[in-house]
Design goal:
By secondary structure, the protein is mostly helical. The chain is 59% helix and 1% strand. It is built from 31 helices and two strands.
């Protein structure tokens, strides 16, 4: 970014006041000394916020690291799978795992003797690289694999029970396929400074506070503990004692019986309203909008804010103008409906083979969506398509390596140097003649043997081959060419959506895109739709998680081979545990999982939803979304999205002072439908925090921003997630029975917490 002109004018206070001739990024308060310089780009942030120093003597390959890593992987993977079948979702977050692993490691260091066999459990001080190794391993395990959703749907709704070997291989291939593709793109999506991955900065800032020595480090650690403790205690109030704090709306309190007020200004409960002007005091919901607002860069925040404002206008316009008969249905809803507003019974349009029967569809009539959900589909398609054009216009040089290798000279060179003995690869990397151009963190990593591309290529080939065999062994109805298209779509998507995620910290989901493509390719085949989504959407998700965790390794200076090992072990262990627990739960709770309501302990809502989406997209895509049909603009929005970034690029080319390069068109488009579901009362608070930190603090108090912003963000996330985890089991029903606070003015248990009208 060009240097801006700054003029000083005397102020009434003892602080210096500045009038800026430039943009909002420019320093306006403190002297621009080395310590007070405003962080302007990704390289500045990565080198000032996180320590670049490395201690090669720190050993991550300890028995203690494997012991804690495997234990937390088993804990996280099991918990994630169990709560897939619960009415309440529990997410074992990265920050939660980081804090728990640190506490366990510190306890083992402190209390276990360092002699005899016990020395393996306590080889010395618990170090940063051990902690990073553990986090990466259990992060790979601590989720419910999408393949278990597919297997659950097969068993519950199709009476298909694949054998254990096929199921395990399905899990391995679908979970590791993205690792193979993502690993091969490390040179583009991981190593450069431009690929910042802002979502991991609070975690690494916390690591520096935990493990660096010196007075400043101790001061930062005190700040972390203070904020962690404060938010840990505070979360009891909005989460249990005083839930009105989830969404405090003066307008709702003034007009509690007005339906329009509830739709526009309510938002403390799921699918209640848009939460306009509501204030949220629950950090869990504030940081769940698009990640920690203290970490996401200002450019991305500003773009999403523009999309949010447009979302409010568009949702209200569609509903009150009764577009797509929106007033027949709830304002915010994700289900299919009959025209009269009752929930659509999808089982009545399926034949005995669980395929959509056109005759039965004609009897029941085509289903409807809520207008807000259609806008959500439109906006997602706009954002997904805009991503390709935006990155090719603004970030072509960052992505160029993805296609410049496709020439005969490079291919001949690869062939000449190819060595199939991948296990003998030394992993040594050449340091370029001008290492100053490299990312400083990556430059430090060059001393360690790399996990070579051949390892990731082998992972890709094995996963692809196993997946191809499995889709036929399991009677998926997905043909080989459909599988190949799914993988090719995933590979292209990883490049573009991986770059957007790495730069902005905002991850766009391609699930609707893949469901729609599969619906057109395999019309009337819901099962094929599910397998197509598994090997496309899930592959992208896994690749982005792999790259995020490898960035943690790069920032923490964890050797690449240790990171690769941790990811493979964690993913494999998590997959096996997912399968075992899924089987056990379905065998013992089958009838409850098939019921609409479920119980307060078990629920089949997630496999029900997954199956419903497969039927809607796989069976009715042509009837609902083709040209001339009711929702034809949903697929047509891809074409609009492809050209959406062009006006911004043209304006910037001819009138650069307007700074059209500052906006991310895909994020603006995507957020036009962002308020379609969930609790929306936190949105205003989210942007208040984000602009306070990423603009005001960063430009007025850059020294404070560098030292404490990401650390405080980590403490807020960590304290909140630990308390929410405890409350989930203690009072919110995760252990079976909920113990809600008795009703009082601040806990409206019989309606919406913000006291807006329940619709």
């Amino acid at each position: 970014m060009a240097t801006e002109t700054v003029e000083w004018t005397p102020g009434a206070t003892d602080e210096k006041s500045y009038r800026v001739k430039g943009d909002i990024e420019t320093s306006t308060r403190e002297d621009d000394t080395d310590e007070n310089v405003v962080l302007q780009n990704e390289r500045d942030i990565a080198t000032h916020v996180i320590s670049v120093d490395d201690d090669p003597s720190l050993n991550p390959w300890t028995f203690r690291a494997f012991f804690i890593g495997l234990g937390l992987s088993a804990f996280g993977g099991s918990l994630a799978q169990i709560y897939y079948f619960k009415p309440q979702t529990i997410i074992v977050s990265l920050m939660f795992l980081a804090i728990i692993s640190y506490v366990i490691g510190l306890a083992m260091e402190t209390f276990i003797p360092r002699h005899g066999l016990l020395r393996y459990l306590n080889p010395g001080p618990f170090n940063k690289k051990e902690n990073a190794f553990i986090i990466i391993m259990c992060s790979a395990a601590a989720n419910s694999a999408l393949a278990t959703e597919l297997l659950a749907v097969q068993r519950l709704y199709y009476n298909i029970t694949p054998n254990a070997a096929s199921s395990i291989f399905l899990l391995f291939s679908s979970q590791l396929l993205g690792y193979g593709i993502g690993g091969l793109m490390r040179g583009i999506l991981l190593y450069p400074s431009k690929m910042l991955y802002p979502v991991v900065l609070p975690l690494l800032s916390m690591f520096d506070a935990f493990y660096l020595d010196g007075t400043e480090a101790r001061q930062r650690l005190k700040v972390f503990y203070f904020v962690f403790t404060a938010i840990f205690i505070w979360e009891i109030f909005p989460e249990w004692i005083f839930p009105l704090l989830t969404g405090l709306s003066i307008i709702c309190l003034a007009a509690p019986n007005n339906a329009t007020v509830s739709r526009v200004f309510g938002g403390s409960n799921g699918n209640e309203g848009l939460g306009l002007l509501s204030l949220c005091f629950d950090w869990q919901y504030i940081s769940s909008n698009a990640g920690n607002p203290m970490a996401i860069p200002l450019r991305a925040q500003l773009s999403s804010f523009i999309g949010y404002v447009l979302c409010v206008v568009v949702f209200v316009s569609v509903f009150y103008n009764n577009i797509w008969e929106s007033q027949n249905f709830p304002f915010l809803a994700q289900l299919l409906f009959y025209e009269n507003g009752t929930v659509y019974n999808q089982t009545l349009i399926m034949n005995s083979n669980y395929e959509v029967d056109p005759t039965l569809v004609a009897e029941q009539g085509l289903p409807f969506y809520a207008g807000s959900w259609i806008i959500n589909l439109l906006s997602m398609n706009l954002g997904l398509a805009a991503t390709f054009t935006h990155l090719l216009l603004w970030n072509k040089d960052d992505l160029r390596a993805a296609w410049t290798w496709m020439n005969m000279e490079t291919l001949r060179s690869w062939r000449a140097n190819f060595d199939w003995k991948f296990w003998k690869h030394s992993g040594k990397r050449e340091v370029p003649a001008n290492p100053g151009d490299l990312d400083p963190h990556y430059r430090e990593m060059l001393k360690y043997p790399d996990a070579p591309n051949s390892w990731y290529l082998l992972t890709l080939i094995l996963s692809f081959t196993i997946g191809l065999v499995v889709i036929y062994k399991m009677n998926s109805t997905l043909p080989w060419w459909g599988f190949a298209i799914a993988v090719l779509l995933a590979a292209v998507s990883i490049l573009f959506f991986g770059a957007l995620y790495a730069i902005t910290g905002i991850m766009l989901s391609i699930q609707t895109l893949t469901q729609m493509i599969a619906g057109y390719l395999h019309n009337g085949m819901p099962m094929a739709n599910m397998f197509f989504v598994l090997y496309s959407y899930n592959t992208v998700s896994q690749a982005l998680l792999l790259l995020r965790d490898l960035k943690i390794a790069q920032y923490a200076k964890l050797p690449p081979r240790a990171a690769f090992t941790a990811q493979i072990i964690g993913t494999s262990l998590g997959a096996v545990l997912n399968y075992v627990l899924m089987n056990s739960i379905i065998e013992n709770q089958r009838e409850i999982l098939l019921s609409v309501q479920g119980t307060n302990i078990w629920s089949g809502q997630q496999p029900q939803s997954y199956n419903s989406q497969a039927i809607a997209w796989g069976g009715l895509a042509h009837e609902l979304f083709s040209s001339g049909q009711r929702y034809q603009w949903v697929p047509l929005s891809y074409i609009i999205g492809l050209v959406a970034p062009l006006p911004f690029w043209i304006i910037h080319r001819y009138w650069p002072r307007l700074r059209m390069d500052y906006y991310y068109t895909p994020i603006i488009c995507f957020y036009i439908g962002a308020l379609c579901a969930g609790i929306n009362s936190s949105v205003v608070s989210y942007y208040m925090v984000s602009f306070l930190c990423q603009w005001w603090l960063r430009t007025r108090y850059p020294r404070w921003f560098v030292k404490y912003n990401y650390l405080v963000g980590a403490a807020l996330d960590g304290g909140t997630q630990v308390m929410v985890f405890i409350l989930s089991f203690a009072v919110q029903g995760a252990a079976g029975k909920a113990h809600l606070i008795p009703e009082w003015w601040g806990a409206n248990q019989g309606g919406n917490y913000d006291r807006c009208l329940s619709l």
